[in-house]
Structure formats: structure tokens, C-alpha cells
């Protein structure tokens, strides 16, 4: 059976334009070529290291390029090309900018990879559907007996069985390859879904926390306001009560003064052998305290 081959045409992926690298390479500093430019001096004296979250991308790039070289008889990339491609001797700012270009194009890269895998699967399925060419059985001699022809028939059956087994193995291998690719894609999709779910959950937790803080703040402000209003109301009531008492006291004093200043004409009046005072309106007063104690009518004093 002919071997199954797959031709995968990768779609063209548009990436952002590369960073214009500063002239900060690894120069050979000697007496004839002193490194006295401001850019090189700043680069040499700089103690800023690339943060770990960015450094891991350069580390993987360095590993990948050297891994490709190690699997090739002739290295495909020399050290200068590797260092230049990874911006290894560039400034920290430009290295971060270079990695940001990758992060910005990650979606298009992911899309291109998925499309490439899809084309690869289609080609595998297409090649799998092609009929395999089995070897022709040897021609039998015309004058040979039936006994002589039996070994030839057995050989042909064995070859057909072997071809069938090979085709079955190839089919299983392709199926396993497709299942493996599907598993990788499914794993990536699950990771993306988990990431989105995690982001949504974190957002909900954050919003819930902010809401609780806001409600707590509003509740506290409301309580403070209620306490303040209650205090003001109480102070107002106390003040009004005090003002009322002062006013009543003052009115009473004025009334007493008016009562004392007012002179009424009374006469001595004897009733049941006891002296009283009586005015022209028949109001009866106590002889000593001069308080009104009743009224006189029809020859009888009606006491209050």
C-alpha cells in the first residue's frame, strides 16, 4: 500500500511591523572604538532587568531556536541571528514593546493555527479516501494442474490480508492523529472558557465587594445622619420646652404682678360667725389670704 501523505498549506498570517531596534548590540569595546555614546552608556549602566512575566517569552524563544538547531545537521540560526531576533541586547523598554507585538497578534496567530490544523485534517481525510493499489496476482500457467495453482492462490490471499491489515493500521493511525489534534484543540478551548469564566467570576466578586462596601458606607452615613437628626430634634424639643417654661413663668410673674397691683373694692362680710371679704360681683375672698374661695348668692356661699 502506498504511504499516506498530507500536504498542508499554511495560510498567510499578517503580523505587526517589527520594532526598529536601537543600535545597542554587543560591541567589541577597545581603545580604538570606545563606547562613549549616550545610548551605550545608558544601556551599560542600566540595572533594570526585564520583568519575569516578559522574560519567560524571551526564554522560550531562545529555547525554541536552539532546539531547532540541535535537531538539524547544519544549524539554521547563528548566535547573532538568535540574539538579534529576540532583541536580547536591546533596552528593556524595546524588549517589552517587542513582546507586546506578540500579545497583540496572539488572536490572529491562534486563528491561523486552527485554520492550518483544519486544512491538515482535510488533506488527511482526502488521502485516506483514495483506493490503495494492490499488487497484481501472478498469472497461472495454462497447462499446470489444479494442485500447482493452490500455492499461488494462498499467496494472493495472504497479500490481500496483509494489505488489509496495513490499511487498517494506517486508518487507525490517522484516526489517532485526528483525535489527538481534536484533544489539543478541545483542551485549548476549555482553557479559554475556564479563563473567561474565571474573569467573569472575579468581576462578579469585585462588583459584589464594591457594592457591599458602598452599601456599608451608605448605611453608616445614614446612621450618622439619623443620630444627628435625632440629636438636633431632641435639642430642639428641650429648647422649646425650656423656652415655654420660661415664657409661662414670665407670664405667671407678670400676672401675679398685675394681680397684686390691681385693687378691688371689698367689704367685710360675716357668714356663720366667720369673717369674709366680698366684692361688688359677690365674689367671696378669704379674710387673711385675700384669695377667692367662692361666690355668694341667695344668702348662701358656694365654695370652690
Structure explained in plain terms:
With 304 residues, the chain is an alpha+beta fold. It has a domain at 266-303. It contains 6 helices and 5 strands, in the order H-H-H-H-H-H-E-E-E-E-E. It has helices at 38-45, 52-70, 79-85, 92-104, 106-128, 146-261, and strands spanning 266-271, 274-279, 283-286, 292-297, 300-303. A 5-stranded antiparallel β-sheet has the order 1-2-3-4-5, with no helix packed on it. Strand 4 and strand 5 (300-303) form a beta hairpin. Helix 5 packs antiparallel against helix 6 (146-261). The chain is rod-shaped. The termini are far apart. The model is unreliable at 1-36 and 147-155 (pLDDT under 50).
Topology:
Blueprint lengths: L37 H8 L6 H19 L8 H7 L6 H13 L1 H23 L17 H116 L4 E6 L2 E6 L3 E4 L5 E6 L2 E4 L1
Antiparallel strand pairs: 1-2, 2-3, 3-4, 4-5
Summarize the structure.
By secondary structure, this protein is α+β, with helices and mostly antiparallel strands. The protein contains six helices and five strands. The chain starts with 37 loop residues before the first helix and ends with a strand.
Keywords:
alpha+beta; 6 helices; 61% helix; disordered N terminus
Helix content: 55-70%
User: How far is the first residue's CA from the last residue's CA?
Assistant: 138 Å
Question: How much is the average pLDDT?
Answer: 77
Helix and strand element order: HHHHHHEEEEE
In the predicted model, the low-confidence regions spanning at least 5 consecutive residues are 1-36, 147-155
SS summary, helix count = 6
Strand order of the largest sheet: 1-2-3-4-5
| Structural class by helix and strand composition | alpha+beta
User: What profile does the largest beta sheet have?
Assistant: 5 strands, antiparallel
Global geometry = rod-shaped
Amino acid at each position: 500500500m502506498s504511504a499516506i501523505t498530507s500536504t498542508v498549506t499554511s495560510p498567510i498570517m499578517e503580523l505587526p511591523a517589527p520594532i526598529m531596534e536601537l543600535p545597542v548590540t554587543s560591541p567589541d569595546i577597545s581603545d580604538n572604538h570606545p563606547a562613549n555614546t549616550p545610548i551605550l552608556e545608558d544601556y551599560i549602566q542600566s540595572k533594570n532587568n526585564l520583568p519575569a512575566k516578559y522574560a519567560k517569552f524571551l526564554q522560550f524563544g531562545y529555547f525554541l531556536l536552539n532546539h531547532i538547531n540541535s535537531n538539524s545537521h547544519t544549524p539554521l540560526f547563528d548566535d547573532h541571528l538568535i540574539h538579534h531576533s529576540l532583541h536580547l541586547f536591546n533596552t528593556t523598554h524595546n524588549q517589552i514593546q517587542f513582546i507586546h507585538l506578540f500579545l497583540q497578534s496572539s488572536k490572529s496567530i491562534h486563528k491561523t493555527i486552527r485554520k492550518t490544523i483544519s486544512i491538515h485534517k482535510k488533506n488527511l481525510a482526502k488521502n485516506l479516501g483514495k483506493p490503495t493499489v494492490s499488487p497484481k496476482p501472478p498469472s497461472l500457467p495454462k497447462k499446470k494442474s489444479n494442485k500447482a495453482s493452490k500455492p499461488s492462490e494462498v499467496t494472493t490471499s495472504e497479500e490481500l490480508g496483509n494489505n488489509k491489515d496495513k490499511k487498517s493500521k494506517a486508518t487507525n493511525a490517522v484516526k489517532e492523529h485526528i483525535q489527538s489534534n481534536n484533544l489539543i484543540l478541545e483542551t485549548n478551548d476549555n482553557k479559554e472558557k475556564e479563563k473567561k469564566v474565571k474573569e467573569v467570576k472575579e468581576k462578579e466578586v469585585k462588583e459584589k465587594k464594591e457594592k457591599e462596601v458602598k452599601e456599608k458606607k451608605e448605611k453608616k452615613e445614614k446612621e450618622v445622619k439619623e443620630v444627628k437628626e435625632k440629636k438636633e430634634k431632641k435639642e430642639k424639643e428641650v429648647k422649646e420646652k425650656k423656652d415655654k417654661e420660661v415664657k409661662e413663668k414670665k407670664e405667671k410673674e407678670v400676672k401675679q404682678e398685675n394681680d397684686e397691683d390691681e385693687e378691688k373694692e371689698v367689704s367685710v362680710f360675716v357668714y356663720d360667725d366667720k369673717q369674709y371679704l366680698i366684692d361688688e360681683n359677690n365674689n367671696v375672698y378669704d379674710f387673711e389670704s385675700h384669695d377667692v374661695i367662692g361666690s355668694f348668692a341667695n344668702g348662701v356661699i358656694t365654695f370652690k
